[in-house]
Amino acid sequence: MFGSSFVYPAVVAAVVAVLCLNVTFLGGVEGKEVNFANVGGIAGDDALETCEKNAHLLNKTLQALEPFDVFILPNETFWLIGGIQVFHLQHVTIQLDGTFAYTGNQTAWPRHSDKSVYDCMRFNSCHNITFTSSGIGTLDGNGIGWWGAVKYLEIGENRPKLLQIENTSSLLIEHILFKNSPYYNLYAGDVKDVIIRYCDVIAEVEVNPQRHNVFEIQAFNTDGFDVAGKNVHIHDCNIWNDDDCIAVKELNGDNIQAQCSENYLIERVNASGVGLTIGSIGASDAHTCVRNITFRDSVMHNTFKGIYMKSRPSGTNTSTGEITDVLYHNITIYNPTQWAVWIGPQQAGYEGACSLVWPEDPLAKCPVPENMTWKNITLRDITIHHPWYSPGVIFGNSNNPMMDITFSNVQVTNAGLYPWGEKYYYCEGVNNGQSTDGTTPAPPCFTVN
């Protein structure tokens, strides 16, 4: 298990080897090169008519790719409108040497019959697909017109994802900048054998912001990399956004590529946003599963949240779910604006969730889902500098408490005292919580060893 200090390095090496084999085993076989400019793509023109022409051409060109073909976007900017949809590609390379930039024209944006927007770009039911660049390719969502508190009241979360990939295996994404997505930057759901490396995410309201303040945080829902899959390696990436930086999402028995979101290694990430995250995870009748997850060797400067694990209310009385065998190792967090560590129910604005104003509002409620099992969660060699709040929350359900939660050498310097005072952590609903190797301060419901 990744969460075990005795065996996780061997499993990490095996998973990485399998990923490299699965993603690259057909390398060297030649197809044709398809240059977007040569087939009629128009560069440097953001007029709506050009956006629509380029989008129509891109849909047609990508869908026509055959095994071993290489699609090349030359080093220029090509403007698009959303609704790029591609199905059943196999053994194809998409080389983005330039920029795909999306119009901010929301009125013209294509929509489904229920008025929900099409995503910017969506791939479904593909195998052995590589997104790469000879330098740095850019997907620019021009999202600022979709963001903000007022806009949220108008359209909510009806905003396009920059790149969505579903029901796909053997996926490599590298050397891509995801810039100012209207909504999630990358959502990869029901995927298997995935490598994401040397990619950056930027979602900024202001240029070069230094803090996630009230103004900057209006770029909410700009998740960095959300992945629900099996055998996933994410490494050497830089992320600044205003929602989950990297989020492990759930799978269950009804999914196709895998029935558990498992075997993740996420390492050498510089991230600032709403956390290195697992969740939100909700129970299901097909048994929701997240297990064998490792985050390690990463730094979070001036982040909003740090380590963030969250369950959500869902399902029926017979629904079940698990979050098991998780390791956060060698993570350094500087100046978190809110919680440096949150392990518990999701804070959200919907019915049944932990209130967004808990614990500030004494009347606010924070219910914890009973149908989610948490077991074998380890934080090891974690350093937290100058948290504005108390260091964190560990909050399980009293009828189904978290099991085997270990803080090993978790060090907090200049811990904030609000709201938990000298207890430092809110800590309830935990069985066999262990504080080891000089963890300071120790969560009050843990045993100190």
Briefly, what is this?
The chain has helices spanning 8-24, 48-63, 149-155, and strands at residues 33-35, 70-73, 77-80, 84-87, 90-96, 99-102, 121-124, 127-132, 137-140, 163-174, 176-179, 186-197, 200-202, 225-240, 246-248, 261-272, 274-282, 288-301, 305-312, 321-334, 341-345, 372-385, 392-395, 402-413, 425-428, 430-436, 447-448.
Mind explaining what this structure looks like?
This protein is mainly beta and 449 residues long. 9% of the residues lie in helices and 43% in strands. It has three helices and 27 strands. The chain has helices at 8-24, 48-63, 149-155; strands at residues 33-35, 70-73, 77-80, 84-87, 90-96, 99-102, 121-124, 127-132, 137-140, 163-174, 176-179, 186-197, 200-202, 225-240, 246-248, 261-272, 274-282, 288-301, 305-312, 321-334, 341-345, 372-385, 392-395, 402-413, 425-428, 430-436, 447-448. It has a 27-stranded parallel β-sheet that branches. Helix 2 links the parallel strand 1 and strand 2. It is globular. Residues 1-10 have low confidence and may be disordered.
Cα distance spanning the termini: 23 Å
The overall pLDDT, averaged over residues, is: 94
Provide the succession of SSEs: HEHEEEEEEEEHEEEEEEEEEEEEEEEEEE
Helix share bin:
under 10%
The helix-and-strand class reads: mainly beta
Our estimate of the beta-strand percent is 35-45%
> With helices defined by DSSP (H or I, 4 residues minimum), what is the helix count?
3
